[in-house]
């Protein structure tokens, strides 16, 4: 029985895909070429090298199996495979996410379980391969005949293109292909740094004096607002479009009644499912920041960001960062005069997972802390709204602006509804939570503009990335909506050549730009010709 289980484990590991959508019962009814080649090698080797090969092969298969599990997780959340070169730096943010979603004890339990599972997989796979190798030698004649038959069957199936079902060829070489793919990925990742360094030195605005920057926006309060996980699917996927579209339509009507006009389009984000800081850096720097190495190189440089351009042009630059709960040295790179994080905005209410505080409080704090300052000049604000961040539980709801206060009024909301664990166990609840969170964030922002903002406002609001593939499905674009809102028609006339659509809900035929192109187009539109 132990031998049968050992063989099942080895063959199952070799046939295991690295994407959850490809895991079906039929997946495991195929012939893995790696197993056939392994049996042939074991039969050809003398005892000592044979045992060394079995141990090394088992440990290697165990590590590759762990790599497949990482791939499955990354495909499910970020829509791409795990990158061993760059993605190990994401472990710290992952622990922060677990801590804020499930508490410190829950995060420790998950991390400890992951470590133990990794060790167990490697050890168990090694033992299984060693045991299987022993049986191959013990029954050499039978093993030789079986290997020959399987080799023939594999080559005939490969030649005929035979499949168990569509997408599951009988002649399987999945594990070898995955290893080759990751090896090529690692080589490409290592080359990427040189390519990025060459891109980063090209900057038409690097030396532009402040008195020549953004003259067409002098005297305006310019707010760049990212709405977490606000992707194209939120306004086009039938699972979300009706409710999200309704709040955009209603918000657009109310803003128009208050004298505001708007234009909208789409940007293609450098990330999906997570990694918001990569999208923020891409938007702000005009460089394609799609991995942590590029991000670290960027923030260690003197690249001119949108924030830096406003600072150079004598705006007061403010970062409203409700999701920042730890030291954030990157604030110096971006060029903020003042950073408000989760600890210094006066919030006395309950935590809302990674959202930390409701968006309505963040907006209220901006009004109180910056717009309420006596004798203030024009502001430039970057403000991620985080209530639509996973895990989408608990969720706040809108209240009267006069009742926001120090945020303690939100206390009952943090205890209402399902817990994050309950939401993530049920895909329907996960989708409903995501939909409701986007509706809330958009409602809070449009209500804020309607109630508090004046003729000097220029608001640019956009999504940072699409939500995880488990919400959008496989093959979703990386597009996010972007809108510019103002009462000043001259501001919109400057971008008439962009051909963006009217309103705050872009249609299916609205222009689509890469997110890294926005910085230069924006600075060109609102700065005098060079």
Short description:
With 530 residues, the chain is an alpha/beta fold. Helix content is 52%, strand content 11%. It has two domains: 2-190, no CATH class; 216-526, Alkaline Phosphatase, subunit A (3-Layer(aba) Sandwich), CATH 3.40.720.
Could you please describe the fold and organization of this structure?
- The protein is built from 19 helices and 13 strands.
- It is α/β, with parallel strands linked by helices and 530 residues long.
- It has two domains: 2-190, no CATH class; 216-526, Alkaline Phosphatase, subunit A.
- Strands 5, 6, 7, 8, 9, 10, 11, 12 and 13 form a nine-stranded mixed beta sheet that branches.
- A hairpin with a 2-residue loop joins strand 2 and strand 3.
- Helix 2 (33-44) packs antiparallel against helix 3, helix 2 (33-44) runs antiparallel to helix 5 (140-160) and helix 3 (47-78) runs antiparallel to helix 4 (91-138).
- It is elongated.
- The mean pLDDT is 89.
List the helices and strands and how they pair.
Elements: H1 2-15, E1 31-32, H2 33-44, H3 47-78, H4 91-138, H5 140-160, E2 163-165, E3 168-169, E4 171-172, H6 174-200, E5 221-227, H7 233-236, H8 241-257, E6 261-268, H9 276-285, H10 292-299, H11 306-312, E7 316-320, H12 330-334, E8 338-340, H13 359-371, E9 379-385, H14 411-415, H15 420-425, H16 427-452, E10 457-463, H17 469-472, E11 479-486, H18 489-493, E12 501-502, E13 512-514, H19 518-526
Parallel strand pairs: 1-4, 5-9, 5-10, 6-13, 7-8, 7-9
Antiparallel strand pairs: 2-3, 6-11, 6-12, 10-11
């Amino acid at each position: 029985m132990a031998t049968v289980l050992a063989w099942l484990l080895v063959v199952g590991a070799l046939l295991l895909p690295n994407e959850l959508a490809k895991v079906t019962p039929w997946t495991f009814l195929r012939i893995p070429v790696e197993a056939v080649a392994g049996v042939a090698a074991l039969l050809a080797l003398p005892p000592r090298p044979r045992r060394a090969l079995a141990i090394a092969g088992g440990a290697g298969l165990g590590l590759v199996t762990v790599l497949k599990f990482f791939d499955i997780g990354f495909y499910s959340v970020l829509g791409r495979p795990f990158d061993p070169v760059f993605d190990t730096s994401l472990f710290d943010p992952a622990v922060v996410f677990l801590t804020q979603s499930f508490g410190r004890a829950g995060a420790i339990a998950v991390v400890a379980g992951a470590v133990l599972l990794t060790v167990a997989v490697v050890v168990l796979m090694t033992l299984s391969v060693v045991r299987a190798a022993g049986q191959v030698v013990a029954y050499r004649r039978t093993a030789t005949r079986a290997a020959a038959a399987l080799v023939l069957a594999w080559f005939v199936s490969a030649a005929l293109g035979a499949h168990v079902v569509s997408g599951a060829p009988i002649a399987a070489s999945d594990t070898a292909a995955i290893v080759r793919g990751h090896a090529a990925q690692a080589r490409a990742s290592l080359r990427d740094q040189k390519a990025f360094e060459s891109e980063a030195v090209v900057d038409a605005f690097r030396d532009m004096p402040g008195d020549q920057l953004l003259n067409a926006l002098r005297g305006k309060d310019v707010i760049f607002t990212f709405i977490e996980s606000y992707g194209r699917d939120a306004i086009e996927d039938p699972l979300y479009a009706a409710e999200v579209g309704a709040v955009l339509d209603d918000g657009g009507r109310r803003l128009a009644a208050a004298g505001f006009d708007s234009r909208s389009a789409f940007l293609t984000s450098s990330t999906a499912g997570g990694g918001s800081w990569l999208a923020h850096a891409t938007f702000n720097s005009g460089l394609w920041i799609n991995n942590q190495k590029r991000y670290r190189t960027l923030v260690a440089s003197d690249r001119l960001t949108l924030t830096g351009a406003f600072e150079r042009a004598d705006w007061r630059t403010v970062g409203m960062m409700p999701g920042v709960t730890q030291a954030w040295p990157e604030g110096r790179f971006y060029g903020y005069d003042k950073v408000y994080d989760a600890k210094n905005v006066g919030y006395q209410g309950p935590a809302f997972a990674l959202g930390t505080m409701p968006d309505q409080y963040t907006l209220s704090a901006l009004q109180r802390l910056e717009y309420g300052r006596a004798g203030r000049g024009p502001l430039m604000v970057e403000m991620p709204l985080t209530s639509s961040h996973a895990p989408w539980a608990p969720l706040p709801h809108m209240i009267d602006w006069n009742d926001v206060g120090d945020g303690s009024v939100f206390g009952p909301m943090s205890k209402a509804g399902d817990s994050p664990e309950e939401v993530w166990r049920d895909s329907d609840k996960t989708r409903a939570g995501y939909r409701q969170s986007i509706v809330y964030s958009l409602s809070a922002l449009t209500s804020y503009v309607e109630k508090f903002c004046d003729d000097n406002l220029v608001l640019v609001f956009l999504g940072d990335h699409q939500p995880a593939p488990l919400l959008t499905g496989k093959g979703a674009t990386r597009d996010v909506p972007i809108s510019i809102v103002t009462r000043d028609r001259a501001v919109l006339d400057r971008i008439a050549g962009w051909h963006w659509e009217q309103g705050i809900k872009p249609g299916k035929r609205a222009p689509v730009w890469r997110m890294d192109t926005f910085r230069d187009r924006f600075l060109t539109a609102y700065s005098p010709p060079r």
